[in-house]
Amino acid sequence: MAEQHVEGPVATGSGPVAVTIGRRPEPVHDVAVYAFEGMAPFELGVVVEVFGLARPELGGLLAAPWYGLKVCADRPGTALDAVGGFTLTARHGLDDLAAADTVVVPGVANAFSGEVSAGLVTALRTAHERGARIVSICSGAFALAAAGLLDGREATTHWRYADLLQQRHPDVRVTPDVLYVDNGDVLTSAGSAAGIDLCLHLVRRDHGAKVANSVARRFVVPPHRDGGQAQFIEAAIRPVEEEDDGVARSMRWAMDHLASPLTISLLARAARMSDRSYLRHFTARNGTSPMRWVVTQRIAASLPLLESPEGTVEEIAAAVGFESAATFRHHFGRVMRTSPTAYRRSFGRGVA
Q: Is 46:195 a contact under the CB 8 Å cutoff?
């Protein structure tokens, strides 16, 4: 935070001196989320949980204040019926939404009908023109597209709506097999739970990996999920069986040994299973292979190291278990869609 100074004579008559009269407080980053008639509460709840909840556990990790959150609607003060048989009332209107630093549209009332509030479209355009960050979750991409904010850009939405979004807005490059797309000032995410991934990504962008990891831990979710929504579309849902405890045990063991060479056989041994049985149970439980999961955890472990000015990329690669910097760069690019050096340049604390 910057200090304010004034120059002027003091009573002792020794000449002009700088006198500290106070500090300018860090501005709060305002997040506005759109509420509407007939909305499902989950996506709204994700935004409120991430950006509206007090975070005393973060303590000294925060270099800037936490977010300020406003729930906004076309008509503030009007009760809105939500899915599930209850109502909610938004205190703020679209003027507040248009004035926010980050605007989140968690869905639209009916993606198939194509109806989007004209007031919302105007507010989104106004917010974007003044430099706000515009975010959608699930079918909220239809509102961003209606405002023209996705023309010529890559975007995603729930897999059920991907073809419809492409047909209705041919200038949008719809990518249906990812969890979210970050275009810098405009971001879109896939189905409902992918909103968690995108919101954590925003926290990571704004406050760094350590803070995002802490928020994810309180959420009881991984700080970064590898892969895309395609792996969830036809995945079978089954109860966790007692024998799956071995898989969980192996995952805990792997997290304690990320810097060491890890193989299927070592993980299977930690789970007390045969290699073949372990592969089958791990993939059924987690929707990905054991080694792909290990790579994702190593990438996640590298983020706070890259944000520190200490250590070269080669040293960080070795510290999180990659056999070479080239292997690290390859997997980092696949998972994070950028390079370790570019990530450090964007998110590093005190890194030139």
A: yes
